[in-house]
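mind reviewing both lines:
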Amino acid sequence: MAARSEPLDSALRKLLVTMTLGAFLALLDTTMTGVGIDTLVREFGSTLAAIQWVTTAYLLAVSVTAPLSGWAIDRFGARRTWLAGLSVFVLGSVASCLAWDAPSLIATRLLTGLGGGLLEPVMLATLAGAAGQQRVGRVLGLAAAPMTMGPVIGPVLGGLLLQALPWQWIFLVKVPVGALAIVLAVRLMPADDATTGQAAKRLDVLGVLLLPPGFAALMYSLANAVEGVTVPVLIAGALGALLIAGYAAHALTTRREPLIDLRLFRSGGFAASVSVLFLIGAIMFGTVFLLPLHFQQVGGQGVMAAGLLLAPFGLGAVVAQPTAGRLSDRTGARVPATAGGLLLIPGFLPYALGSNGVVATLGLVVVGFGLGVVASATMGSVYRTVPPASASRATGALFIVHQIGGALGITLLTLVLQSATVSAPPEAAFRTTFWWLVGAGVVISAAARILPGRPAPTAPTTETAPVAGHA
């Protein structure tokens, strides 16, 4: 019989709220900024191609710092790394408000991304370490629930701000919230232990030269492939793949601790969990990209209305994630993730068949619920399959794989949609594309069968486990 899940003590609940606030802020950043692209083109008298770098620069900076998060936690401690990331993020947001032209705004977005790239990985590693293996699914499910609403809240809030206030407010609005997150972190996050840094005395310099640039180049290639497979896209993709392959060879042969330890993939449970997270990234990012486009091009909705129409998706995920996380702590990830994947089939089916109204809305709730179940169960499985001391380095691996999956999902769905549009009207082209997502439900439910089953029982604890990066 599965052990009863332990309650969340006050310290863990406070840590959960504190870190979720900061990570949610970073998630809002990209969705709010995307709404303001047209406004920024007009304000700076620039071109769309130039202003798109406001978003691209942020994502590339995230790609550079995210792989460093595990080492930073081990070297400096979770609290110091979190505060550094938040402070740089807030400083970058202030600087964005002061930008006088497109290049200066792009530069400030790079700064913001350097801080923002640390937030989600540090949150995941810290909460996983603090929760312990018996509660990790439940805690990460609770943390993920508000994050799912980012694609809904971001466009709506950004649109409202741009209608009523100058463009600077899409950046300025994050400053007081970021300052609050810093104050809460200073007061509520456990102090870094005096022995922090012993596990990572030396930075893997060769790994830094290979992995972050390789990840950034690959993300740039995937993000820009939707506009056409040009020579720069091919060069960036080839360079990214080459650098990542070089890093893999280095990480598997070095005698020192690599930036991200790929030897963790020797654990079948970890490899299976990260592989399913890759598929989750592809489906979730692809869904959040495709649905607003469908609402705008087929339904004739504006940006804010399209964001609000995503609310049923977010609601389904918010309901599912905490429950699925708690369930996976008791049963393992395999059963809930398989069931969640199967729910995607009836969820996407109304869109593939061209249905609308209540049926389509209910389908969106089912899609959100299904993806929430799969994501929450699988994320908990990652941290139950690695030693606690490796949690920070494992986070870097899963973040990179999840982001690459997301970029690839958006690219593939875009190419499918563009190809279908050549020979069919938009409504029919979208139906064709949604059939691919119906098929994705079959694939992810089948892949979930390789996830670990019921976790081995462990002795109950009475205190919160040490935060990742603490002794």
